[in-house]
Write a structure and sequence with these properties.
Nucleotidyltransferase, domain 5; 444 residues
């Protein structure tokens, strides 16, 4: 005999509707609360920023409009307005001209430095170096000149003076940077016409703060525009990799106040800031890709220029707009046969390694000097081979042993050898340290 259990009563459909309506209401209320909190935070940020920032006169008419959610290109200008220039009413020059493009769909954020000695046509002014556009007509003429040169829309402009750079780097508790060689200049004993910015930054992985960070990214004597641009972009890349969104958001008011105090910009409305924040948030996961500016050099009786052909400019623009994230090379797993082959290759003559030569003696001399210069507490390792045409640098400051402090203040010993490679301004280093987790190995 079959036994049938009584089916429980089926709840009315209105019960489901009420439950669903309640769930949706909770979600909407939660979303509204979160959105309201975010909007309040944005409003506070806007209030802080507009309270201390300086709008750029006559800039709105030269900028391109941006559609909601569309990519944005920002022109970054670093002006070298010094106290002497203000006092003597000298024209202010644009020391740094850089383009930043936020486009989350590309998988990378493109950054491109424009050589300040680039030979261009300045609208209404004729042929000159591109940094003269700023001196002749401020940010507005700089925007017009860059847009005419590259043929791309420019949506915002940010003009930062050096006080702002120092303040922001210090507020972010400095940046760890791999310094390829010693940067040094002293004005002691030089006449006024031979003096320029003093600097003394030794080679090696280290933490740069405030003025030293500024000295490093600005240094130009002995280098050219291309090398300095690469150095500036590398500093920005290392800074981005070390500074998380949490740190930026947690200290947003202090950073915004510094940024606004030392910055002139067109970005001031709630709409513009919200769009930019949304793009920045969506792009934060993407790496920064440095786009080289293809150009050469031209020396005339009047001046030394950087020059770029129309074809070079077109290629540079394409690379900038269609940036792709650099794929990290994965190291294949080695087999026992691979290891045996590698051992056999090491026993062969150096001719088996094209482009390299046996530099073991020079490297060993450097290692001996390191051991004599200070207690490291760990062995000094060095490569036996070096690039053809290169040589180890030996001077009172190189090679060197020193101490690195992490962000908590803990001390680690380190050493650095410097090799000057073939080519103008080309160096590489051999670094050793007892610090097992420096920021540089987080994204090798």
């Amino acid at each position: 005999m079959a036994v049938y259990e009584e089916r429980p009563p089926r709840p009315a459909f209105s019960v489901y509707k009420r439950a669903a309506l309640g769930a949706v209401s909770i979600l909407l209320l939660t979303a509204t609360a979160v959105s309201t909190a975010i909007l309040l935070q944005v409003k506070q940020a806007v209030d802080v920023f507009t309270g201390v920032s300086h709008p750029i006169p006559h800039i709105k008419n030269v900028l391109d409009n941006v559609s909601a959610g569309g990519p944005q290109t920002i022109l970054l200008l670093g002006s070298d307005r010094r106290f002497a220039d203000i006092k003597q009413k000298n024209p202010v020059r644009s020391d740094t001209i850089m383009l930043l493009r936020l486009d989350p769909s590309k998988g990378a954020t493109s950054v491109m430095s424009i050589p300040r000695d680039l030979k261009v046509q300045i609208p209404g002014r004729g042929t000159a170096k591109i940094n003269e556009a700023y001196s002749l007509g401020g940010p507005a003429l700089a925007v017009r000149t860059v847009r005419q040169l590259l043929g791309i829309p420019i949506n915002h402009v940010v003009n930062v003076n050096f006080g702002g750079f120092r303040g922001i780097v210090n507020r972010l508790k400095c940046v760890y940077v791999d310094i390829d060689r010693r940067y040094y200049h002293s004005n002691q004993g030089l006449v006024a016409g031979q003096q320029y910015a003093a600097i003394n930054i030794p080679a090696g992985y280290q933490k740069l703060c405030g003025q030293k960070a500024l000295d490093y990214v600005r240094y130009r004597h002995g280098d050219n525009d291309f090398i300095r641009s690469a150095r500036q972009q590398d500093f920005l890349r290392q800074a981005k990799e070390q500074i998380g969104l949490g740190q930026l958001f947690g200290d947003r008011e202090g950073l915004i106040r510094i940024f606004g105090t030392y910055t002139d910009t067109d970005i001031s409305s709630n709409t513009a800031i919200l769009r930019l924040l949304k793009l920045a948030f969506e792009s934060a996961k993407n790496p920064i890709q440095q786009i080289p500016f293809a150009a050469g050099e031209e020396i005339t009786q009047d001046a030394d220029y950087v020059v770029a052909s129309p074809e070079q400019i077109q290629q540079t623009v394409q690379d900038f707009l269609n940036v792709k994230a650099t794929k990290k090379q994965t190291k294949p797993k080695s087999t026992s046969n691979d290891r045996r082959r590698a051992r056999r290759q090491r026993r062969r003559a150096t001719s088996a390694f094209p482009g390299l030569f046996n530099a073991a003696r020079a490297a060993e001399d450097q290692a001996v000097k390191l051991q004599l210069r200070g207690q490291l507490g760990f062995p000094v390792y060095f490569p036996k081979l070096a690039k053809l045409g290169s040589s180890y640098i030996t001077d009172p400051a190189t090679p060197r042993t020193y101490t690195i402090r992490d962000r908590s203040g803990k001390r680690y010993r380190a050493y650095r050898m410097v090799v000057e490679a073939p080519g103008f301004g080309q160096y590489y280093g051999i670094q050793g340290t007892s610090w097992m987790s420096p920021p540089i190995i987080d994204n090798p």
